[in-house]
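Lecture notes, part 5. Sequence design as translation. It can be helpful to think of inverse folding as translation between two languages: the language of shapes and the language of residues. The source text, in structure tokens, appears below.
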């Protein structure tokens, strides 16, 4: 069900929230058809420019939302080891004159983002979940294929799986050719409890509410100014 996002003198936008069991598909801002209160107060010329202005305002708002999520909310919610991950993940789908919809979405389709937003229990597809430690480096697309559990365990004797002294099932790696020292790469768990900490939709909604009310008048003024200029040039050519 759409959640009311922006209600201003100009228009109303809405955002739909995906099933929390799926990856974060993003926040979508749509223009509802009920624009009568605003358009009645405009002249015919202004009404013609409304779709252009609205598309521009929605797109500008989406970029502001994206920047707020990437630079403010994401670093607040996570201990960021890979500073480029959020920037690579969150993208903007621009609005168009005939499609008054802009979207901020996770282009990498990271399922963990949805779970971090809603909370819940992550269950394994097999017997256990490999939880990476700080010894596993995250790239712009997550963990490199060569550093994933299956690749590590199949790559020779350097990495191996065993019980630690505390009885915890782990994947370890030898740092040299010698038996020691060792470092833990993954901790194997039957499931993982995840507490909600990434307030994507709350922050995005608040950011969009502030931005759209400001951006629509700006883009409407630009659109009308541009149209007036074109009209004046056309009239000038006809007088020649």
């Amino acid at each position: 069900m759409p959640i009311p996002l922006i209600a201003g003198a100009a228009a109303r936008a809405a955002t739909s929230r995906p099933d929390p069991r799926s990856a974060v598909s993003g926040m979508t801002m749509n223009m509802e058809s009920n624009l009568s209160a605003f358009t009645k107060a405009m002249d015919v010329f202004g009404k013609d420019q409304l779709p252009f202005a609205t598309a521009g305002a929605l797109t500008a708002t989406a970029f502001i939302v994206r920047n707020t999520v990437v630079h403010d909310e994401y670093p607040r919610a996570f201990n960021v080891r890979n500073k480029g991950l959020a920037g690579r993940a969150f993208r903007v789908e621009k609005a168009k004159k005939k499609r008054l919809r802009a979207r901020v979405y996770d282009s990498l389709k990271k399922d963990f983002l949805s779970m971090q937003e809603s909370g819940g229990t992550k269950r394994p597809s097999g017997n256990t979940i490999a939880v990476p430690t700080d010894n596993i480096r995250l790239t712009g697309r997550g963990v490199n294929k060569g550093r994933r559990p299956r690749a590590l365990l199949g790559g020779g004797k350097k990495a191996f799986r065993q019980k630690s002294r505390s009885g915890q099932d782990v994947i370890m790696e030898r740092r040299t050719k010698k038996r020691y020292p060792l470092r833990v790469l993954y901790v194997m768990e039957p499931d993982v409890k995840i507490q909600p900490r990434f307030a994507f939709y709350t922050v995005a909604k608040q950011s969009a509410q502030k931005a759209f009310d400001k951006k629509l008048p700006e883009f409407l003024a630009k659109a009308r100014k541009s149209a007036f200029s074109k009209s004046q040039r056309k009239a000038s050519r006809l007088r020649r």
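The translated text above is only one of many valid answers, since several sequences can fold into similar shapes. The chain has two domains: 3-116+196-239, 124-190.
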